[in-house]
Input
Amino acid sequence: MSHEFLVGFRLAEPLGTAEALEAALSKAKASLEALGVTVRSWDYDGSERLLLIHLRAPPELLERATEDVARSISEVAGTEAKLERLSHEVFARAQSVVPSPPVAGFLLRAASSQLEGYPLSRDELLALLLFYFTGCSVERAILAAPFLGFDAEKVRAALEELAGKGYVDLATSSPLKPAERLLNAVIPALRAKAARARGRFRVVDEEGNVEEFSEEKLAASLHSSGVRHSLIPAVLSGVGTLLQSKGVVSKRALVAVVSSLLEDIEPDAGAGARFASYVYA
Output
């Protein structure tokens, strides 16, 4: 019989990009599913180099599953991952109603982020993330809300608003296509922000205003300009790699880098030109 477990890994070296970890865990997920092990969720704290993974697995397969994860991280992300003791045992049992630490940590970071530029209000976007990460269950989302400092009634009201806007189907407890597209922009942006613990830079616009670069704002702009959601993680990673050593860059330079990356990734789609047109419309 399968049970819910939390497994922790301490990475030997900091990750340069969130994309490397995404790729490593995608590879591990495929091999684990063949064993009958499910990856429920995961979270990574870049400052501590701590990776938490929520697994559903038969207890006798946990050791094999963690070996597969560590091997995938080594092969794809290029760093050693050692098991981290989370309790008196190596594998901690996860609770089913209260969000697991990976989910809770991600949602708490989301709540502390600006979440600007998306087609939903802040409350609606947080409710959508909570709904998604609690298994698309309205009941679990509302029960979990107080443990994260969210107002349960606001979450309920926001979910009803999301249903009215065509983002979720509460009758079938499922996200609809607009929600899936939006989540595919928001989640990589929040994970990229967590993984990039150093190398921040600032952006200066044409009027001389300065602000810290925000992965969330860039992801929102990419989403709004019609960029395919599957391209957004690669663009965020590319911007971080190219510009994180810079102290200050101009807005025009940032737009040029993003447009260039889009053209390199998918030259026939015209996404780079659409993005620039959207920013300066």
